[in-house]
Design a protein that fits this description.
The chain has 95 residues and is mainly α. Helices cover 62% and strands 0% of the residues. Helix 1 runs parallel beside helix 4, helix 2 packs across helix 3 and helix 2 packs antiparallel against helix 4. It is globular, with a radius of gyration of 13 Å. Keywords: Lipid-binding.
């Protein structure tokens, strides 16, 4: 596992306190950057079955960040924090 910055840990907590649920694309972006930011190894991820659509979307989002874009865990943490700040501005936030 990768060391998590204080800003990343705070953003993870704040993401749970948004006043409205982000759209599916935003949720997938959060998921992918969270998985990459925590240092989980994509190569050990199990590819979902044919009809596991939600898991397939999540797997593909993480694959894009980890394999195609080659985002480092620290960069993924920064992206996650920036995305949560954007979502807080869009959806509101319960402090």
């Amino acid at each position: 596992m990768v060391a998590q910055t204080a800003a990343f840990k705070k953003a993870v907590e704040e993401s749970r306190k948004l006043k409205a649920k982000p759209n599916n694309d935003e949720l997938l972006e959060l998921y992918a950057n969270y998985k990459q930011g925590t240092g989980e190894d994509f190569s050990k991820a199990t590819q979902p079955g044919t009809f596991a659509f939600q898991e397939k979307y999540k797997y593909n989002a993480w694959k894009k960040v980890a394999v195609e874009d080659k985002v480092t865990p620290s960069a993924a943490q920064q992206h996650y924090v920036q995305l949560v700040e954007k979502l807080k501005a869009s959806y509101g936030f319960d402090a």
